[in-house]
Specification:
This protein has 271 residues and is an all-alpha fold. It is built from 16 helices and no strands. Helix 11 packs antiparallel against helix 12 and helix 14 runs antiparallel to helix 15. The protein is globular.
Length: 271
Amino acid sequence: TQRVDELFGVLLEQHFNDPATTEIYTQYLYTTGNYKGAKEQLGYALDLNPTDADGWRRLMVLNVIDEDYPAAIAAAERALEFNPDSLDLYAYIAPTYFQMKEYDKALATYAKALSMTDSTNVEMRSDLLGGMADVIFEQGDTLRAFDTYEQALALNPLNAGALNNYAYFLSLCGRDLDKAERMAATAIKLYPQSSTYLDTYAWVLFRQGNTMMALTYIKAAIEADDEPSADLLDHYGDILEADGQHDLAREQWKKALEIDPDNKQIKQKLQ
């Protein structure tokens, strides 16, 4: 890596006004996980070629990965100036607004994307409806959210994201847990190494009272995740507590609190 960095330094000195050189360096930085550097280099390339709609799109994606959502939206708006009919852009913008908790804008963007999607493109329409359902649930309209998930799965019964989220939200509400278990099981059959889907299946099993199987799957979820989230560790703590492993439960809750120090629910559990 050090040698490659040195060679890129020489290359950029010799071709500092060449967008193609900057783009190759951007790809290298992205591949090595240097998202900040990649965004900086891509910015230089776009300064040289501001009409590069694909470049603006990639800058948006980089900002999403780096969790800089306002910058992602700004890049998307520039991309739309040069490519106003890009369905892919709207499909990125909607979940970005969702992450920013700007739910009305997220729904409006999903609706626009749906209006642009051909009726024969059932997978895309299913994905968009699944995203809308996520937003609607966060807004507190549970019944409408569940109805929207049903629409998404009617179009594509193997939409793993919709299956997973629908199952998880049903479990949170304590509703139709058998259906939630079937949907979560289908999701992990489709993506058996997904930490998120394994976590959901474990949580549904836990809500059903099947603590032993829940422990098996929550452990698999943690093993599949290089950096377990606070939610995942919190779930692990809850399942351990239900299994009578109180000390181990406290350990997981403490780890979760280190990641999410403002989480009041975890604090209450520890107290």
